[in-house]
UniProtKB/TrEMBL annotation:
InterPro entries: Integrase_cat-core, RNaseH-like_sf, RNaseH_sf. It comes from Segatella buccae ATCC 33574. Residues 8-171 form the Integrase catalytic domain. GO terms for molecular function: nucleic acid binding. The lineage of its organism: Bacteria, Pseudomonadati, Bacteroidota, Bacteroidia, Bacteroidales. One of its GO terms (biological process) is DNA integration. It comes from the Bacteria. This is Integrase core domain protein.
Length: 171
């Protein structure tokens, strides 16, 4: 019986408790107006699980500088900092993954400490730990991505301006 039934449980969320952060899998394009060169931009996503209030923006990479910038902009957008940040186990946030004692990247840890947040990375290969942000990414594909589909952007700022207009409707 236990091999055929997947046991799931309800997770209770509280206001201002956590923010889940992730990068969307599908990247967006920015076209240089001078050269016509196309660059791919990553999409940073942050969601407050209690209210499902969502923030997203395009950044150039998944490096720690862009992760920290995305988290900081999300906190400005949310007008506050949660008690904890729950990132994926990407190198920008976690130096060494460990089931019991993950080692948080020094710069990301300093950023979190500055905002009074703890960092609780999701477990490796456990996407259900952050199912809410994974689902939010899918919803963003169906709304924000569709809203800007077919548009051409000459800069990251132009792309983010279009994302934020659509994000306002999404929330």
């Amino acid at each position: 019986y236990k091999f055929h039934i997947k046991v799931v449980g309800h997770v209770e969320h509280y206001a201002a408790d956590q923010v889940y952060v992730d990068f969307a899998g599908d990247r967006l394009e920015v076209v240089d107006g001078m050269t016509g060169e196309t660059k791919k931009a990553e999409v940073f996503v942050a969601v407050l699980p209690f209210s499902h209030y969502t923030y997203c923006e395009a950044v150039w990479s998944q490096r720690k500088e862009d992760l920290i910038k995305g988290c900081e902009n999300a906190m400005l957008y949310f007008e506050g900092a949660p008690a904890a940040i729950v990132p994926d186990n990407l190198k920008a946030a976690v130096t060494r993954s460990d089931r019991n004692e993950p080692v948080i990247n020094d710069d990301f840890a300093a950023f979190a400490e500055h905002y009074g947040c703890a960092v609780y990375p999701a477990r490796v290969r456990h996407p259900k730990d952050k199912a809410l942000v994974e689902n939010t990414v899918k919803l963003l594909y169906r709304s924000v991505y569709l809203d800007i589909e077919g548009m051409t952007f000459s800069s990251l700022d132009d792309l983010n301006a279009a994302i934020h207009v659509s994000l306002h409707d999404f929330n």
